[in-house]
DNA sequence: GGTAGCTATTGAGCTCGTCTATAGTCGGGG
DNA sequence: CCCCGACTATAGACGAGCTCAATAGCTACC
């Protein structure tokens, strides 16, 4: 037979009181029970743990050696229970988050920084990937949360809307249209030279669809693979680009130019696997994201 | 309810296999049993430990946190069982030994050195005290073993004879009787000047009794409180002393002079508390002491 | 030698861990 | 679209063993 926690607790009590009767009282069991269980433990370990012949019960050498480890084991279990509470407190945990690339520019930064500031004990794994990949990884449980656009999701994916993202034409200080008086008719877009994200970005496809619908063929002067690159380019060159309004808010030197008609807006959603379980960290991040969206909607609308 | 070791083992198995059925097979229990026990553990801890909704079972944050401590606790218990075996192997342990003062000179040194060399993992506490004190401390369980003389012991003390110690007159190189031809009649002792242990030593009382029985009154020139002091004094001064033969064997510059009749010999015994339990260390020390006595008797007799 | 204070033993009772059988759930394939 | 296979959850019965009260056995002390 193997020792059980009961045996450890009983042994420690007897060792502490040097007395079976007293220990039994503290443990709220009868003294015969205690005698039997200690004997059982001794049999399980194959050694005498207590010297009962002296006036007061004393640990044998084997007993002292074992008691040390027994105490340690019980301490570990207590620590484990505290650790579990810590997780509930969000003072521990881990969150695997993925976003589609455009969000890195204006959403991931502030959101993750805020979350980390509130819950420094939760480790974060943030990565960029395509929306398809995000959904697949959520289903395979390689991710906890994703941020992407509303649309047709894979079965098993749960999507909750966060906010509405609107795209707009954006120019920098060196652009001749910097002080354009009113909304720019879409037909005039053909006159502009643009810097845009590459075609493998969902945002780019969204923009291309808009152009196609209005039969406009703008001149693409530059293609880049990050929003950051675009803002840098537009700040320094007389080019226009198309960016989420939120990005423009963060860059005072960028000027939004309304289009007529406006680009269709997209709904940004929080994605997760449909499941009964959601980690405390994931729930908390969801709340922070919703809060962020609320304040974002206020400033942008 | 509190978590039991069973719960820990079950949880670790499920976490490892990421599958209840497989884990149940390894644990040799039925799958329903495993489900029930894991659920019980989760209830005890107040958190969900496993995420059962994914394709493969996965630990939740709380689960990973707890598993860490569970592993640690089980490791501690395994270490405890090894430690217990170590004690049986004499690779751990502790021994509290007391000797009456004269033994320190020739017996404690070699015996303890030998024992320590064989069992370096056993810590030793060696002290000198009077025989009465040794027996009292044995009964109060403040000592494991004592070395003293046979005689009337306190009730509850168990004595096992080790060897017979004979005392003899001893002179150093500067003593005129250094080349004494034969045994020295006791009556002639009155001519000698002696260096002896002080009166509170059992050995001194033993010697005084011998003198009294033979109506001799030797001249005590020096009284010392250690055998070491006596050997040093006799080596350098033209004085005689009375020492155990074994001491003389260890000092080539000391010469034993037989007395006629010889001093009564005393039996050296190993003392311990009468009890069913004796530590492995104490048993081992007893054996080493008996061995030492055997070889000692050969060289001296 | 009797008594007080402990621990060990005994036999009955009942909790609870375990089992078998079965229902519920989720994906994947025809 | 429904069935099938793999897996986990639930239900009820059984039995091992923990626990208890009563008591015997032991040791020290007066």
UniProtKB/TrEMBL annotation, chains A, B:
Keywords: DNA-binding, Transcription, Transcription regulation
Protein known as: Transcriptional regulator CynR
Domain HTH lysR-type: from-to ranges: 3-60
PANTHER family from the UniProt entry: HTH-TYPE TRANSCRIPTIONAL REGULATOR YBHD
Transmembrane feature ranges: none
NCBIfam families found in the cross-reference section: PRK11242.1
Domain of life: Bacteria
Species the sequence originates in: Streptomyces lichenis
Family: Belongs to the LysR transcriptional regulatory family.
PROSITE patterns referenced in this protein's UniProt entry, alphabetically: HTH_LYSR
InterPro entries: HTH-type_LysR_regulators, LysR_HTH_N, LysR_subst-bd, WH-like_DNA-bd_sf, WH_DNA-bd_sf
